[in-house]
Amino acid sequence: MHELDEKKRKTLIQACDQVNRSFGSIFSTLLPGAQAKLKPPDGRTVLDGLEVRVGFNHTWKESLGELSGGQRSLVALSLVLAMLLFKPAPLYILDEVDAALDLSHTQNIGIMLREHFRHSQ
């Protein structure tokens, strides 16, 4: 049983690391100059859960409530797409993901999709 728990722990940590890297990369493509990461709460581990952290010019926000609606949309889209990169599918249907965004951010979504999802439709 201990071996199974250890394998589960290692697999979860590897998955979180991969999703975290993709999340940061996607978010910075969608919002140049911004950073995003997943991290465990202070004093906790990945096994206890993760928090979303967002920064602009290396100044980290205290909460997602400090972000605009469009920025929160980009955080959510980045996280969903990062998880989809971890477990890819051949086809994605994105319905009005740019509804709260201005034109430049909409164009960044197209750039990001071409960059990160070359093998999907």
From TrEMBL:
RecF/RecN/SMC N-terminal domain ranges (all copies): 66-121
Pfam families per UniProt: SMC_N
Protein's recorded name: Structural maintenance of chromosomes protein 2
Species lineage: Eukaryota, Metazoa, Ecdysozoa, Arthropoda, Hexapoda
